[in-house]
Write a structure and sequence with these properties.
Blueprint lengths: L1 H8 L1 H26 L6 H13 L2 H31 L14 H4 L1 H20 L15 H9 L2 H28 L8 H27 L9
Amino acid sequence: MTGVRSFYRTSIGKKTVMAVTGLIGVVFVIGHMIGNLLIYTGREGINAYGEFLHSTGEILWLVRFVLTLAVVFHIVAAVQLTIENRKARPQRYARQRRIQATFAARTLRWGGIILLLFIVYHILHFTLGVAPGTPGEFQTGDVYNNVVYGFQNVWVALFYILAMSALGLHIFHGFWSLFQTLGLNNTRWNRLWRNLSIFIGIALFVGNISIPLAVLTGILKPFVV
């Protein structure tokens, strides 16, 4: 246990924690998006998926617990690394060097803040049904109508799209970086990892924003009994 704490105190230790917890997050958001896209199969399909998740009982709570720990450790490690970097460089460069820094890398911290706010709002909105902008028609178990009515609020839809933009950029940079942190990068595989990071980031962005856009354009409409 002492060895683990000693390793974590190093920069590479914190980066390893960020890489592992980030990988857990990537796997989750991919699975979450695939499940959400079942909304295109109709009300029965997405509602059956939601009912299946709740029927798993202890497994669902275990997944939630692991995800919560991953998010907490990811944020703590990120904050500590930021503080260490600022202490190591108390004065900013007279001229910011951004030649090799991608847009995703430069906006990583702001994107992380947006995602944290989104996670809280998303749970309050679509899980508990108590967030501002939650439709008055919210009904526990009716995932389809809750999503459709929720995204009929333009501001909610726009915030969701903004958060998915941050997610795509965050995962593109983070997924690419984790291979470097775990020592899996080399001249032979770098191009593959980079292209895979780009593909996953774009796929998550396009797949997730397609739902609020489909609601706003009338492709997905409320199911009225």
